[in-house]
Amino acid sequence: xxxxxxxxxxxxxxxxxxxxxxxxxxxxxxxxxxxxxxxxxxxxxxxxxxxxxxxxxxxxxxxxxxxxxxxxxxxxxxxxxxxxxxxxxxxxxxxxxxxxxxxxxxxxxxxxxxxxxxxxxxxxxxxxxxxxxxxxxxxxxxxxxxxxxxxxxxxxxxxxxxxxxxxxxxxxxxxxxxxxxxxxxxxxxxxxxxxxxxxxxxxxxxxxxxxxxxxxxxxxxxxxxxxxxxxxxxxxxxxxxxxxxxxxxxxxxxxxxxxxxxxxxxxxxxxxxxxxxxxxxxxxxxxxxxxxxxxxxxxxxxxxxxxxxxxxxxxxxxxxxxxxxxxxxxxxxxxxxxxxxxxxxxxxxxxxxxxxxxxxxxxxxxxxxxxxxxxxxxxxxxxxxxxxxxxxxxxxxxx
Length: 399
Known about the structure:
By secondary structure, the chain is mostly helical. The chain is built from 14 helices and 5 strands.
């Protein structure tokens, strides 16, 4: 065990933040899965043991990923990107339907579900980091600099959006932010944002036009916008915009009750009452359970840990002498922290309801493991930065 710790490198603050988040995850998941266990005639301990297993596997992934030289991820980025495209197409056409969404495919033999957007997101950010690092000389050029970056983003987001619009928007926003930091022309970025906002604004307009305020319900939608998950997106926008005039936003109401009950110090570990009423208290709305049990202090602590994680990743970005590693660590940290902020914003009713889990805290699955892989890659960059700093220090000392 001591030899294992001796081989553990990377940013120690990030390691501590990850450990604290996963430990809190074990406590809250054990507390919040009682209703789920009752529904499937299982014991709450079974879900705790499952989360412990995922956590153990996740830390193994982090450890082995951080031991790999991050330059190898650059070589694998194109292959992973090309593999993710047919996987997304297959998921779109034949994906398993869970909670009214087709974001997963079932893996044979082991009978586990796998969210292909997690792989696609990781592959895209690896590929973007590689392209940004290689095209700094022509980054302001539309054809040579901007197109090779925006086309992969459009492909991945376009394939994810039909089943998971919120994830597609998060990936798109993180990609644009990464391009901005990578010195891509603001004129090109502004044009991309403008085009991307057209369907979003169209959804908002439809949601407002086809809402009956007198009866607090959605009017009959036109035939053209009834396909796929468009009615669901419209309904979520309406529920958010007219929350004070409708009683239909059940999960938002229950989340507000949980937060109100938490107060400053909370009801205490395992004492949540809204876990019996709040849909998905172990995943999408786990932050509301954290505030109910650990109070506003616990909620602020979670927010602080994610912001600390981002701050240390930005520090790695500044210290990394090679562009690929710098962009890669920043992209992966941005996507994790932005996802966390969106989840927390949904829980406190600052954002429409989405199916985005809280990274490292929500109940484990493929998303949890890919989050661990992303953290392992960030720590790989940090480990190499530390190694180079140590070599430089030795050189200075010798001289």
